[in-house]
């Protein structure tokens, strides 16, 4: 059967067809749908781990026990999992182990655009890069075979455009895969220095064998063409090249660590001019230059942002390979009116909104974190000063507290429930242990909202839909040694403000849990707020809430009855009583 | 040799662009096309602009349409139609839903929503179609079928038989919404093929809700 699948669904399918029985990951765009899809197949086990490090450790354990295992994460998740990753390269595997790194060139939904191809070289593990869904499915099986053949974990590196584009995949029946026998072998699995040194030497030998394999790998393909120009490329860039420069000779690399030096030299010898087309870092280009081959790459194509056919065309025009006059005839719409941006915003009724409105009002320094609520940092809410990585809010707030006496008692950390469980617990432990005074607000909406509402250890449900013990956040933070713990309703602005004022003033660490389910999950829409146009002065105070349901037209405020959920925040901020919650509305009022 | 068809579907999160692209891809698959569909998730879901690209041909390489390469832009919201206009191929056409959804900078009074986008599009693009998809969908019985009204208009411009579209609709829309969506599709299709009064396509039930 032929199905149109996203790259992510294709990877899940490939894992199912190739006998993966254990999969783990942490949600992160653009990787999330791999595990969601995989979890729906029969006869497998899949889980959301609290973070990527734990997910990889689950995968290493499953592979050690003899199963084929899949671990998925976004690019920055590999930073979290880097510790086990670099030593798993030493131990190797028993059953095959595949790690998917989903990179995000252009930062569609990320805080940076690091190129994780560098991780494969850094860790010395083989890497495969599919260019579309069909290849993504096939490469999972190949990665598992390489993993078992060469006793090494394998990375599949995809990008947003591969993860979220659909293409045809011819489905196959799943192959049965018996569990390999586990035998105790401490020289392979117990990485104390004496054994680690041996495994480091063995790793060098194993990766050399993969390099030899790479010279004949079926995923490194030459598409013969005009010998005047040879393009070396991989991943989705391959498709842009084929479309924009159809006649060129192309070397498409699917196995991109270790790179096939012989194949590259041979290809280079058959063309007059060598050009590398790759998104992000000059990863291939540096290697090729290291072979002593003259090559052009980043002079023509940017080292930041996502590629597109237009970017590739402009690069080939600059290279003189496409005449200037063949620039795509883009229609001129010079007199087009200015098009205002449409930035993402917190949803109407989002329980996070009141928190950032309050923090801004109190003029506090706010270290933020990763999630929907990072949108609370944008105008007009502007209730956040920083966002660096998962869990950074708490350590940073503590650092500010220790560094600047003037900011002490004026700084709070804001972190979501899923993010707190991912990597906030250790930060809070640091505050408690070192006698810090930091106030932490856990914005608890009961889900991993940003990535599409995945479960986590406090939701009471697993990825496979089973009931699970739900972590008691109050009990957890108390057990870490936080004495001042209180729970507030973020839609009750007066109560929230009082709690924040008291806790930032109080000595010692405090945790405020601002709890309300995500409005997209609870679907708790009350009757919409109504506006008394006679009373409204058009002061625009309500606009500071950055609610997509509120606008000011003709000098008075209006509330869109379709998108308004009746949360009642605007009713509370209006100084003139012009906004009214209908009977049964105004959740927080 | 199948004639390549590149369609850009643009709108605002929650408007049903994804279902529309699935229906289109279903029809393309039935016609024997190679297909690639590209969409971006994540931040876009929080009220941001969304774009889905559907590419059909004998063999499709790039999942992305190049600027100036779209045969049709199907805009679920006017401002988004304007935003992506540079992707239209010379001689291509745009179908635009006559709906305005103000982005937050406009709601906050920090930016202006352009006046008369529909007029601008009509003056610049030959054969531009402006559709009151919400009104037509409401007349058909459910305002949420506006996306399928737009699919109907699109269908009238593409070289696939009407039956194939109706089959795709059956495959992609849940049973209980099928009747209203069929009516919505036909109303859009009729509008595209000959300016038939869209209300007529929805039968006597039109306007009762």
Question: Would you write up a description of this structure?
Answer:
The complex is a heterodimer of chains A (589) and B (209). With 589 residues, chain A is an alpha/beta fold. Chain A has 4 domains: 2-214, Thiamin diphosphate (ThDP)-binding fold, Pyr/PP domains (Rossmann fold, 3-Layer(aba) Sandwich); 221-325, 3-Layer(aba) Sandwich (Rossmann fold); 353-522, Rossmann fold (3-Layer(aba) Sandwich); 530-580, Alpha-Beta Plaits (2-Layer Sandwich), CATH 3.30.70.20. In chain A, strand 2, helix 2 (32-38) and strand 3 form a beta-alpha-beta unit. In chain A, helix 10 (237-244) packs across helix 13 (309-318). Chain A is globular. Chain A starts with a strand and ends in a 9-residue tail after the last strand. With 209 residues, chain B is of the alpha/beta class. Chain B has a single domain, classed as Pyruvate-ferredoxin oxidoreductase, PFOR, domain III (Pyruvate-ferredoxin Oxidoreductase, domain 3), CATH 3.40.920. Chain B has 9 helices and 6 strands, in the order E-H-E-E-E-H-E-H-H-E-H-H-H-H-H. Chain B has helices at 17-30, 78-83, 104-107, 117-124, 133-140, 146-157, 162-172, 178-194, 198-201, and strands at residues 5-12, 34-39, 49-57, 70-75, 88-97, 129-131. Chain B has a 6-stranded mixed sheet, sandwiched between helices. In chain B, helix 1 packs parallel to helix 6 (146-157). Chains A and B meet through strand 8, helix 10, helix 13 and strand 20 of A and strand 2, helix 2, strand 5, helix 3 and helix 4 of B.
Task: Spell out the key features of this protein.
A: 589 residues, alpha/beta, Rossmann fold, globular, B: 209 residues, Pyruvate-ferredoxin Oxidoreductase, domain 3, disordered C terminus
Summed up:
The complex is a heterodimer of chains A (589) and B (209). Chain A is α/β, with parallel strands linked by helices.
